[in-house]
Amino acid sequence: MGVERQLPGFVTSKLSTAVNWARKFSLFQYPFVTACCGMEYMAVACNRYDISRFGAEIPRFSPRQADLLWVVGTVNHKLAPFLARIYDQISDPKWVLSFGVCASTGGFYDNYATVQGIDKIIPVDVYIPGCPPRPEQVIDALIMLQEKIAREDWEEHYDRAPAIEVPA
Amino acid sequence: MSQNALKKLKTKFKAAVVDSHERLGNETAIVSREKLLEVCQWLFSDEKMAFDMLSDVTAVDYQNRQPRYEVVYHLYSTTQKHRLRLRVPVEEGQESVPSVAGIWRAANWGEREVFDMFGIRFEGHVDMRRILLYDEFVGHPLRKDYPVQKSQPRMDLRSPERDAVEEFRHFYQDRNRPA
After folding, report:
1. What's the whole-number average pLDDT of chain A?
2. What ipTM score was computed for the predicted complex, to two decimals?
3. Do residues A112 and A84 lie in contact, with contact meaning Cβ atoms separated by under 8 Å?
4. Which residues constitute the domain of residue B153?
């Protein structure tokens, strides 16, 4: 538009683009690790694959301080309400990554105990297949999530319904 | 060594040991429910037997057989280095066995798990309630007549589980099982 040329030191952009750019490179994660996929999550987080290159550096073990929920491993019906509670405790904007087949679909645990995919409980942004997924797949999913965040309408998170209906 | 233990058990408790076998080196005695405590007490305290470790308590559901269930105890002696398995037949309709948690403390949680999964109660157990599943759960999932995929969600799901898969259940249902 030529504004930059006339006013050196200024950059023009859409507000949503700027906000989304900030959001996608500062993903504070809450690892909800329940099963063997956790080892692969650690591999991704450690220096060989190093997800801090993508701004998803620090795991936060309090949902209040996180905005990306990693559900890593099998979730059973006994655990389901607690996962939903943790999802609700994360303040908006928030995203969910489903790590591995068990979290995504229940995997081969097609039985009385296992939730057939965490999307029965909470909304999911990106699913990662694999049992367990390779770190490359996880990084691919993280980049997909960043691309998704970049496309978002930045007010989209304002009126999201909670997973658990709390009686007034 | 384990053969000796089984032999001794059989001579000592002729009436209690209903049957026994040594297939594949697994010395096993089938013990009647009424005599279980007496047998276990002897296996634990006798010097030559000295079964001081209860490796596992579990159960089997044979469904179409009479008696339907069997509770299985795996015993090991850390001093004599021998092993023994006890199997206790349990009739359908009267699913209860005396608790051996007073002899081996390890039986406490094992018996609770058997109760949780098979619904077999252990008389004299101090804390007979579910250990793995939640209290709202109805039924016992490792019984063969419990539907394989029947889940009991604790909260409202965003979409119903396996609505499509249930239709195909009859394709892989056991043919020997009454429909």
Report:
1. 87
2. 0.76
3. no
4. 2-171
Task: Mutation target for B interface from A79, A82, A116: give the one with most B CBs within 10 A.
Answer: A116
pLDDT band of residue A168 (cuts 50, 70, 90) is low
**Under a CB-based contact definition with an 8 Å cutoff, are residues A77 and B153 in contact?**
yes
Q: Is residue B44, in this structure, part of any structural domain at all?
A: yes
- Cα within 13 Å of Cα(B101), Cβ side: 17
Share of chain A residues as helix, strand and coil, in percent rounded to the nearest 5: 40, 10, 50
B165 at interface of A, judged by CB pairs closer than 8 A:
yes
The per-residue pLDDT for A12 is 82
Of the pLDDT bands very low, low, confident and very high (cuts 50, 70, 90), residue A52 is: confident
Contact yes or no for B148 and A112 at CB 8 A: yes
Contact A112 B146 (CB under 8 A): yes
- The residue among B158, B160, B159, B157 whose CA lies nearest residue B149 is B160
- Residue bearing the bigger pLDDT, A132 or B165: A132
- CB of B149 within 8 Å of a chain A CB? The answer is yes
Higher-scoring residue by pLDDT: A5, B136: B136
- Contacts for A129 with CB less than 8 Å, ≥ 6 apart: A100, A101, A104, A137
| Tally of domains in chain B | 1
Domains and CATH numbers, chain A: 28-150 (3.40.50.12280)
What CATH number does the domain containing B32 carry?
Answer: 3.30.460.80
Q: Cβ–Cβ of A81/B151 closer than 8 Å?
A: no
CB interface of B with A, residues 84-143, below 8 Å: 132-134, 141
Residue to substitute from A120, A121, A124, interface B, most B β-carbons within 10 A = A120
CB contact under 8 A, B152 and A111: no
Are the Cβ atoms of A77 and B153 closer than 8 angstroms?
A: yes
pLDDT at B8 over 90: no
